[in-house]
Amino acid sequence: MSVGSLRAAVLRIVGGRQWRVVGLALVVVALPLLTALIALSRQNWHPVLDLAMTELRVRDAFGAHTPLIGLPGRIGDYPNQGSHPGPLYFYLIAPVYRMAGSSPWGLLAGAVLIHLAAAATALWIGFRRGGWQGTVAVAALLTVVIRGYGQVVLTQPWNPYQPLIAWVVVLLAAWSVACRDTLMLIPLVVAATLCAQTHVPYLVSCAALCVGALGYGWFVNRRHALVATAVGAVLWVPPILDQLVHKPGNIRTLIGHFGSPSEAPIGVAAGVKLALRHLDVWAGLVGQVTRTGQFVAPSTAWRGALTLLAWVGAAAVAWRWGSRALKALHVVVAAALLLGVFSMARIFGLTWYYLTLWAWGTTVVLIGAVLWSAVVVVQRWRGDTRSRTISRPLWLLAGVAMVVSVSTAISFANAEVPEKRLSEAVGSLAGPTAAALSERLDTGVDTTGGYLVRWSDAADIGSPGMGLFAELERRGFEVFADEYFHVPLTAHRVRPRAAVATQVHLATGSYIAAWQQAAADPTTGVSQVASYDGRSDGEIAEYRATRERLMKRLGEEGHPELVPLVDTNLFGVSLDVRLSAADVADMSRLIALGQPMAVFIAPSVFEPLS
Question: Which of 90, 173, 218, 482 has the smallest C-beta neighbourhood within 10 Å, fewest atoms?
Answer without folding.
Answer: 218
